[in-house]
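Trying the structure run again after the queue cleared.
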Amino acid sequence: MRATLMMGAAIAALLPLCAMAQAPTVSKRDYQLHQKLLTLDSHLDTPASLDLPGWSIDDEHDVLHDYTQVDLPRMKKGGLDGGFWAIYTSQGPLTVEGFRKARDFAILRGLSIRNMVAADPENFALALEAKDAAPIAAAGKRVVYMSIENAYPLGEDVSLLDTFYAMGVRVVGFAHFAHNQFADSSTDPSGKPRFGGLSPLGKQLLTEMNRLGVVPDASHSSDQVLDDLLALSTTPVLLTHSGCKAVYDHPRNIDDAHLKALAAKGGVIQMNAYGAYLRASTPNPQRQAALKALYADMREGATMTAEKRAQLLAKRQEIDRLYPDTDRPTFDDFMKHMLHALEIVGPDHVGVGADWDGGGGVVGMEDVVDLPRITAALLKAGYSEADVQKIWSGNVLRVLAAAEAGTAR
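Done. Tokens:
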């Protein structure tokens, strides 16, 4: 398969790192407990790495060298059993040609995920139902659920969801950074709603999702979309990677009222580690200008050669040297969001969706090696082992199981 580079995913793969602070080590007890738990992250943008030239999921990489955050050796070290591997497509024009290009890209990205599993069956296994995760992890393999971030590639034919369901997709998010044909985004550049929630086509898509047993994902969508999903969905709603507005008032985060409404319908918020959504940071105009120039070299669907990737990485490392990001959010900032959500809705409605390889990562939790810190922090905050297990996988699997059961109804 040809190596491709999606604009958004590729940018996310080049995370805003400065000199990496050494994460405090957790106790042996906490580390052993973490390794014992079934741990799933609900939003892995790592499929963007799979098509990079010379990059292998089976090799250990260095976040400071190539900016990637997830691979098999690091998953083992950090005790991450797997999660939902995202088919991400950036928002393009709402035209027949735009839909066609997005559809083709999304299918190829989905095949990259399937090829990863097929190429290494000793270490990876495709999961299709909630009950699949535990036996896969018990066999020492990584769990591979599939999801879609941004339903844009479905075009105006919601029956195309059947194709992606057959491929293995079990979670679908409606929108991304901008409005599309299905729903309003929380961050559209216009600053104005287009539909005031789900579009008529978006409501048709939700009906298809409920029929198939696909979990609706409201991350990136507007609050009004979440309102519509909570009112119309016959199964619980998931926020695969979001934060709390009460901690940081950003459009990508949700307020306490929506948190409570989500929980009342059995839904779950999976906590994001995307720094820009955790707290405000001091602007760095020179760095931003340099990164903008670098990203101008990246175009959706462009072939990425090994030489080109090496050039981009060298430029990125030079930017980090000349204009270091000295005000990055920290692990404590991430935990403020998680602990607030837990305070508002309790451990039955909170999980982890850090947005690895999609912009996630903070000082003190730069890649998946640092995940035991979450377990240690939750235990320190007074949550039980049973609570922590729910947070790491029990809650998201319950939502998936509810979607599966909804098909019978």
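Residues 4-12+23-281+328-408 form a domain with the TIM Barrel fold (CATH 3.20.20.140). Worth checking whether this holds up in the mutant runs.
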